[in-house]
Please model this.
Amino acid sequence: MAGSHYQCFDVSIEDDVAHFVLNRPEKRNSMIPAFWEELPKAIEKIDDNAEARAIVISSTGPVFSAGMDLAAFAPRQPGDKDEARRNRIRHGAAFYDSARKTQATFNALENCRLPILAAIQGGCVGGGVDMVTACDMRYATEDAFFTIFETNIGMTADVGTFPRLVQQMPEGIVRELAYTGRRMPAREAKEFGLINQIFPDQETMISGVLEIAKEIASKTPLAVYGCKRLINYSKDHSTADTLDYIAIWNASMMQGEEMQEAMQSRAEKRKGEFTELPKRRGTFGSD
Model:
């Protein structure tokens, strides 16, 4: 088992599955400035070097994540009045740059070639909702709940909740959650399609989600990558455009040898011997 420690989470890799575990339960796994730097770099490292075939993100303690640690981002108050005036003038441009940086952190999850599964226990609040909506699938414990908390503190959620959540749940429900800032319990979240499955407790959930990730990791990496790429593409394009893109994708990417090995290994009830995704340098934006 390979492992890496970061300030905000630990990463281990086993059976071609990378497991990210948020490791600040005493702070409710709030997202401090280091988190926004570490997460995309860690995701991109695994993806760029083809170190795994699937990723699971889970957490520790009673709360999955309390979201962004606003106190850690609070600007220092200058004593000089002229400096305070200059800070006010620069505020808009600085906030825009900060917002785009935090958005890019979760864009890295969506742009990753590997499927990412979120395992959620307890509260998933604010930035936590932003993060899990950028994942491919979401699983939760019975005590989990989701809150678009920004409204409760006078903000409009800006890191990715709205454009993604309205594709994952009915628009009217998203509006209700956003306007009221109320909690949505796991049962309701499953009813409206936000989460795939509910588990009785965190231990059972982690075990179950890792098994799903291992099943994904047993498939042809290029085929799984193609599925993620085309599903993401279809969300923002017409059926006609997506069908055309699928045809072009398979014409250039589909490999007969990999298909033969997938069918033969399945028939022989053995692990497939597939080619890993190519290593790459740098990341690619979404379409």
Notes: The longest helix spans residues 81-111. Residues 64 and 161 are 16 Å apart (CA to CA). The mean pLDDT is 91.
